[in-house]
Design goal:
The complex is a heterodimer. Chain A is an alpha+beta fold. Chain A is built from 13 helices and 18 strands. In chain A, the strands form six sheets. In chain A, strands 3-4-5-7 form a four-stranded antiparallel β-sheet, covered by helices on one side. A three-stranded antiparallel β-sheet of chain A has the order 10-12-11. Chain A has a three-stranded antiparallel β-sheet with strand order 13-15-14. In chain A, a hairpin with a 2-residue loop joins strand 8 and strand 9. In chain B, a hairpin with a 7-residue loop joins strand 7 and strand 8. Chain B has no helices and nine strands. In chain B, strands 1, 2, 6, 7 and 8 form a five-stranded mixed β-sheet that branches. In chain B, strands 3-4-5-9 form a four-stranded antiparallel β-sheet, with no helix packed on it. The radius of gyration of chain B is 22 Å and the shape is extended. The chains are: A alpha+beta, B mainly beta. At the A-B interface, helix 1, strand 1, strand 2, helix 2 and strand 3 of A face strand 1, strand 2, strand 3, strand 4 and strand 6 of B. Strand 3 of chain A pairs antiparallel with strand 1 of chain B. Chain A: Keywords: DNA replication. Chain A: This is Sister chromatid cohesion protein DCC1. Chain A: One of its GO terms (biological process) is maintenance of mitotic sister chromatid cohesion. Chain A: InterPro entries: Dcc1.
Chain lengths: 390, 139
């Protein structure tokens, strides 16, 4: 270990005057474990730094075929290794001038170990969570209602929250939010997606009850609904349906639901659209309005991102196109959309690219990057940048 | 597959990981006799009265400056252990270790802990100036 005298000799050779320097001199040496490579450096943003300081953990998620992502409790980040031509040394015991007390009268040596070093680090970039896989997994065994007498329930391909957290590249909060969005329900400890026909059956029970009881669909009583419908379906499923299609509130200690007009109408539209490739728009709108509960109005704007209207065909048509069925990859998504239709107006395409926007990114920016615009009949339309087969 | 990055393995009271200093140098560092770096002296670091960091490495003297990092770093230490038990309850406060399927015998569990946070660095970007020695001073 170097002594003060040796250091002072070096200073003299280097022509540094002791009186120009602060009193503490760090003698740096490499620790024993520097070459062990069992450590690495990761770049953080302010949010993650605070997370770690408050004791929260982070998780890296990804299968062998997937690119790894880092998740905090509520956000997802892309991981990438960045190289630098510089050497980065980490020194635990090293003080900076503002931390030195300078109370000592004379120079002294502090032996300080370099704990590790590297010339690359992990870079993080905030990323949309990869949630498409969630629906895919849950559709392996959708819940069709309680097993009928004699029939065995299919217990394969069921996933608990823990299973999902291991497989889905998203933070826990993003995952929970998406489970709500796709109307998944926890049944027997497993997260299940409802078979669509079953979900619509439940909704049908509820809307028919509202109709026969002459309730306002803004004030559907929970207790009575459960009692009346108990012979038909499990109470948990009725309540789940109300949670998906309505908003819960309490009045005088009683629980009510205000059915959400847009959600109910959209559900019924999906039921009608799923059985054919295309519908005559006018006919569809008539049937649809007749199918929704009395007092609700079915409007085309309720179907943004789930159905596509073709105003250029004669007669005008409507078909099912759900954004959640499209690719999560931006380029693939645009290629697919342009394959379906050569030219899109901004109004038509926006619902199908909204979810691709990164933080602070607009759909306008995406269109500038991935599409080419032109004017058609006085309206701005977008088409593909490269040739696509239609 | 899940790899957990735990805030501080040894910290029981949940206190924040320690803050270390980063020293950034241009170029590579090799040991004089090719004996590897571990255990060897690297150099002397000192500060002028104005707070300018000065580093003497071998026959070179470098002047640097102290910089606050725009994006802080975390120093992650890897821990691999043979999995003994099955998973504990999934509780955000606990250290959750999850097995990774590996080709080796028996499942191993990999996790990282945050050994330190780095928010500032000393960067030495100027060209090192050689120290001309005439006669080595005897102590």
């Amino acid at each position: 270990m170097r002594t003060l005298e040796e250091v002072q000799a070096t200073l003299q050779i280097a022509k540094l005057k002791e009186e120009d320097l602060q009193k503490t001199i760090h003698c740096l040496s490499f620790g024993e474990n520097v070459s062990s490579a069992d450590y690495c450096l990761m770049e953080l943003d302010d949010t993650l730094c605070k997370h770690i300081e408050s004791g929260e953990s982070l998780v890296i998620r990804g299968d062998a075929e997937e690119r790894a992502v880092l998740c905090s409790g509520d956000k997802t980040y892309d991981l990438k290794i960045a190289d630098t031509s510089n050497m980065l040394l980490f020194v635990p015991g090293c003080r900076t001038p503002d931390q030195l007390t300078n109370s000592q009268e004379s120079s002294h040596v502090v032996h300080t170990q370099i704990w590790g070093f590297c010339n690359s680090y992990w870079e993080l970039r905030k990323h949309r969570p990869k949630l498409k896989k969630l629906k895919k997994l849950l559709m392996e065994n959708p819940y069709e209602g309680p097993a009928l007498g004699g029939q065995e329930e299919n217990t394969e391909n069921r996933y608990t929250m823990q299973d999902l957290l291991e497989r889905i590249q998203a933070s826990e909060e993003e995952l929970k939010t998406h489970l709500e969005t796709i109307h998944a329900s926890q049944i027997d400890g497993y997260w299940r997606m409802l078979d669509f026909d079953y979900e619509m059956k439940l909704l049908g029970h509820v809307t028919q009850l509202v109709d026969s009881e002459s309730w306002s669909f803004n004030k559907v009583p929970l207790q009575t609904s459960l009692e009346e419908l108990a012979p038909l379906e499990p109470k948990e499923m009725i309540e789940h349906c109300l949670n998906c299609y309505g908003k819960r509130f309490t009045e005088n200690d009683n629980i009510f639901y205000a059915l959400h007009e847009d959600k109910v109408c959209r559900g019924i539209a999906l039921l009608l659209l799923q059985n054919a490739i295309k519908f005559n728009l006018k006919e569809f709108q008539e049937v649809w309005q007749q199918s929704v509960p009395d007092g609700m109005s079915a409007r085309l704007d309720q179907l943004k991102s789930v159905a596509l209207v073709d105003r250029n065909s004669r007669p005008e048509t409507i078909s099912l196109l759900r954004v959640e069925d499209l690719s999560e990859d931006t380029l693939e998504r645009f290629n697919h959309l342009f394959t379906l239709r050569e030219k899109w107006t901004e109004d038509d395409i926006t619902p199908y690219i909204q979810d691709l926007c990164g933080e602070k990114q607009t759909t306008g920016a995406l269109l500038t990057k991935y599409a080419r615009s032109s004017m058609q009949n006085g309206i701005k339309v977008f088409n593909s940048r490269r040739p696509v087969a239609t | 597959m899940l790899v957990c990055i735990c805030s501080s393995r040894s910290s029981v009271d949940g206190s924040s990981p320690p803050e270390w200093l980063l020293v950034e140098l241009q170029g590579e560092m090799v040991s004089r006799h090719n004996s590897g770096l571990a255990g060897n002296v690297m150099g002397d670091l000192m500060y002028t009265k104005e707070g300018v960091p000065v580093l003497i490495v071998g026959h070179h003297i470098l002047y640097g400056k102290q910089v606050k990092l725009e994006k802080p770093f975390a120093v992650l230490t890897k821990h691999s252990s043979l999995l003994q038990d099955s998973l504990g309850s999934h509780d955000n406060d606990d250290v959750t270790q999850v097995p990774m399927e590996t080709n080796q015998q028996g499942p191993t569990s990999t996790s990282y802990s945050v050994s330190a946070l780095i928010k500032r660095k000393l960067i030495f970007k100027t060209r090192p100036k050689p120290i001309i020695t005439n006669v080595p001073k005897k102590v």
